[in-house]
Amino acid sequence: MYYTDETVVFLNGEFVKAKEANVGLYNQTMHYGNGVFEGIRSYDTPDGTRIFKAKEHYDRLHYSAQMMHIDLKYSSEELENITYQLLEKNGMKDAYIRPLVYLGENMSLTPTNDVYVVIMAWEWGKYLGDNMLKVMLSSYQRPNPKACHVQAKVVGHYTNSILATTEAKQKGFNEALLTDINGFVAEGPGANFFYEKDGKLFTAPLGNILSGITRATVFEIARELDVEVEERFFKPEEIYTADAAFFCGTAAEVIGIAQFNEYKFPLNWEDSNSYMVQRKYKRRVAFNEYKNVYL
Ligand code: PMP
What is the CB neighbour count within 10 angstroms for residue 89? Predict the structure, then answer.
């Protein structure tokens, strides 16, 4: 599903066939989850293939690496160039791109200078699908920001996400919504959360969540649409008074939520400001983001 016999990946300075690349059994990332990664998308635009906000993603990869004491030798610009080459070699335009920085052999609880950079790409539909979602309040909370760097995209953090998504699916929902350690709404397992009330958008402030690049894009778009956004701590119960809600993330893009627990959002999705944000996001990524003429 992710690669064929012909798929090429970038691995430590070389483009190699995915099926021929291998990973050591003793690497630290596999045992302890100390590795960092990104999830990026490229789009087939009228200007050719464009990676959406490549710099922001690679800068965040650097931040994540730094937080985990991992020495990432490539600059954001180099990584962006490599990614364009990778897409070209694979003949891909609309792609999901997965850079992963992983560590070599080390069974101690200290990082190593044996740092590997792999970049993979595959064609991937929207992560949460195209249909409005049924979301449940998770029994899991997001990790304690005093236990790890929640704004870093660290491999090991995603065990929390897997638990939450699995629980939601087992209970017949499409996805989970997690609270922070204080019981305030935080985010989804792989996406940020917004709700809409009387035309205004509300979302959790930074501190207990990943600083989503799509979240930042939603802020930009809302400003352009004259839609107010407020970052504020709120309890899950407040969502029962909302008119509409959505998740946003690179893989999921902007996807509407039909239902939270048993509560059905009353506003027709197409009549919400959230829907306007979704439409504008679609256009922004499908056309080059700097071509404001299209927006
Ligand atoms: N929160 C979490 C936990 C995530 O994994 C992601 C996906 N990277 C997001 C939010 C959304 O981030 P972005 O918009 O940068 O993809």
Answer: 15
